[in-house]
Amino acid sequence: MSSLAHRIVSSVPLAVAALALAACGGISRSGPAADQTLPNAPAVDQARVVAPLLEPAPPNIVGTYTGTLIITADGHHLNGTLTIGVKQQGKKINGTWDAVVESQTEDLNFTGTVKAGKAGAARVKMKITDPSGSCDGTATGTVTKAGAFTGKGSGQACGSIPKFTFTFKTQK
């Protein structure tokens, strides 16, 4: 454990104790015995308190990514192009998912999250929605330091479109 992480973990019990004492109005020699619970003291899960402090900040993946999309439905493969526009605030992302397959354009939106992955890459989870409310999907992917955004996903059956899966490879 790094010295910074050790100091953070070591100081959490002291901070919790200080908060508990402040909530009780200070230190009292006539307080409860060591095995008793202080009245009105909130239970604290130290792992939940410390984990966000140790979690690395999400990588910045803001930008426009363009590339290819392969859709598979009922054993048929359709090739197309894809442009993903990503906006980000902390670990939350949203943006546009614009696909062109066989001369048909689909202008979709997405929301999701980004987390730090291995080797400086970002792990992404997205919910893709059709503004008209007809066809929604989900996707997971990875964005590398070099700006490659690749992944896979699936969509529900809607209208004349059967349930489908897809893969994508884009570059910033």
Describe this structure in words.
This protein has an eight-stranded antiparallel barrel. The N terminus is likely disordered. The chain is an alpha+beta fold. The chain starts with a helix and ends with a strand. The relative contact order is 0.14. The protein is built from two helices and eight strands, in the order H-H-E-E-E-E-E-E-E-E. The radius of gyration is 24 Å and the shape is globular. The protein folds into two domains: 52 residues, no CATH class; 109 residues, Lipocalin (Beta Barrel), CATH 2.40.128.
CATH architecture of the largest domain: Beta Barrel
Listing every helix as H and every strand as E from the N terminus to the C terminus, the arrangement reads HHEEEEEEEE
The CATH topology assignment of the largest domain is Lipocalin
Number of helices, counting only DSSP H or I runs of 4 residues or more: 2
- Range of helix content: 10-25%
Number of strands: 8
The strand line-up of the biggest sheet is 1-2-3-4-5-6-7-8
Average of pLDDT: 79
Global outline: globular
Question: Can you tell me the CATH superfamily of the largest domain?
Answer: Quinohemoprotein amine dehydrogenase alpha subunit, domain 2
**Domains counted in the coordinates: how many?**
2
Distance between the termini: 35 Å
Q: Any idea what the radius of gyration is?
A: 24 Å
Structural class: alpha+beta
As residue ranges, the low-confidence spans are 1-29
As a percent range, the share of strand residues is: over 45%
CATH class of the largest domain: Mainly Beta
Largest sheet: 8 strands, antiparallel, barrel
